[in-house]
Write a structure and sequence with these properties.
Radius of gyration: 21 Å
Bound molecules: protoporphyrin IX containing FE
Strand content: 5-15%
Number of domains: 1
CATH topology: Cytochrome p450
Length: 431
């Protein structure tokens, strides 16, 4: 997508307004909140033509907290996201490319009853107990990384994503899966290509992009398939999430190797990217708000509420979608059946009708329920894990590097409209 060069000050919102084009200018990538504010005030349930025509020709953009929350929790809205009109059979399934095959099993694209089935297994796998048992592992990964920073070259040339938030997220995934730590670079290379397909509503890809995405999908699927087959052949040798998914039963039902392989790719995309951005965006927000930084340093017990506030203030996921299963009214507008709705989570999180002084970071804000993990039946399956990583990671950093400071430079966010995170965060550690 080309940059539009439009800023929040000079944009005119009218029926030709293309939100995604405006949001993709460098200034708005770094700070989309003034654009959100303008749209929320102008028309909180805004109609626009879809820039890509993907899924539907028309789009409704929802920017108010209460409207978003009711869309996410309303059973009249689903994903409606069957790819193509052809019914998938065992014969034609094998002819599909790896990406399309995996999408048939990704919970985020499914409606009940298919969604309920796979989600039931995921909920069992990601139980509160499972996440709580991971606590010491995540803490020891954080300690290992801190030690490496103290003793290695990063001490004098520290970049938070490279040296901390990226390895914390990817090592946690390797630990959960029981996969070799050395593989995480290549897994991330594939995953970061495949994850781009979650942006299809807002982004038009070139043939070259698509080829790379399809190739990466094939490679990551092959990689995980081999691992799942090995676990399936020798389950007694392993004690990890993959083997757990293989052994889980719901009455007589179980997940197939193909379903587990596809699910692992989905989990990897989510678990590599979003927790990394939550930690990085959270530290960036704190360093720009020294009063809040001091509060958390002096009272690490505030971390749970602080992570909710980081999620609200600068969400790693900026939107999620739904599709109407039948005609429905949202914020007074009638939305016809079969239309795509984009819930702008980042905009709802800054809605002054919900949060007093929404542009202020306040880690002691009361009753914050951020929209950042979505809602209803699609509520993020990894929310507990993401919170654990952020709570552990951020408190470890503050405890060990209490004098860290921003450098005298401009920091920029990467150019995705869906996933929000800094490109890099170089800091002075002052140790
Ligand atoms: C800060 C970190 C994270 C954020 C902000 C985030 C955000 C989201 C959002 C917005 C959705 C869509 C919800 C909806 O449409 O209502 C979602 C779904 C999902 N997330 Fe996360 N996520 C994060 C971390 C993770 C992690 C660590 C995992 C896996 C370990 C994960 C797995 C999933 C899955 C499987 C879904 C699909 C759920 C469904 O459709 O039923 N996420 N997430």
């Amino acid at each position: 997508m080309k940059n539009s060069g439009e800023t929040a000050k000079n944009i005119v919102i009218n029926e030709d307004f293309n939100l995604f084009k405006v949001l993709s200018s460098p200034e708005n990538i770094d700070n989309p909140y003034p654009v959100y504010q303008k749209l929320r005030e102008y028309d909180p349930v805004f109609y626009m033509k879809s820039p890509t025509g993907f899924l539907s020709e028309d789009l409704w953009i929802v920017t108010r907290y209460d409207n978003i929350s009711s869309v996410l929790n309303n059973k009249k809205f689903g994903r409606g996201n069957r790819f193509g009109k052809t019914k998938i059979t065992a014969q034609n399934y094998s002819k599909l490319n790896a990406l399309t095959q995996m999408r048939q099993h990704w919970v985020n694209f499914l409606d009940p009853p298919e969604h309920t089935r796979i989600r039931t297994f995921l909920n069992k796998a990601f139980s509160v107990k499972f996440v709580s048992n991971l606590k010491p592992n995540v803490k020891s990964i954080a300690d290992y990384l801190i030690d490496k920073i103290r003793t290695g070259p990063a001490k004098n040339d520290f970049e938070l994503i490279r040296d901390f938030s990226y390895p914390l997220a990817t090592l946690t995934v390797a630990e959960m899966y029981g996969t070799p730590k050395e593989d995480r670079e290549i897994i991330d290379k594939w995953a970061s290509q495949v994850v781009r397909t979650l942006d299809v509503v807002t982004n038009q890809y070139t043939q070259e992009d698509l080829q790379l995405i399809y190739k990466s999908a094939e490679e990551i699927k092959d990689y995980f398939r081999k691992i799942v087959e090995e676990r399936a052949a020798n389950p007694e040798k392993y004690d990890d999430l993959i083997t757990k998914l293989l052994l889980l039963r719901d009455n007589d039902d179980m997940l197939s190797i193909e379903e587990i392989t596809s699910t692992l790719v989905l989990l990897t995309m989510d678990a590599h990217e979003a927790p990394k951005n939550l930690i990085t965006n959270g530290i960036y927000a704190l360093l720009r708000n020294p009063d809040q930084l001091d509060k958390l340093k002096n009272n690490p017990g505030l971390i749970e509420g602080a992570v909710d506030e980081f999620l609200r203030y600068d969400s790693p996921a900026q939107f999620t979608g739904r599709r109407t299963n039948e005609d429905e009214i949202v914020g007074g507008k009638e939305i016809k059946k079969g239309i795509q709705i984009i819930c702008m989570l980042g905009a709802g999180n800054r809605d002054p009708a919900k949060f007093e002084n929404p542009d202020k970071l306040d880690i002691e804000r009361k009753n914050v329920i951020p929209l950042s993990f979505g809602g209803g039946i699609h509520y993020c399956a990894g929310a507990g894990l993401a919170r654990l990583e952020a709570e552990t990671g951020i408190n470890s950093l503050l405890e060990n590097f209490p004098r860290m400071k921003l450098k005298d430079k401009k920091y920029h966010y990467h150019a995705s409209l869906h996933s929000r995170g800094l490109e890099s965060l170089e800091l002075n550690l002052n140790i």
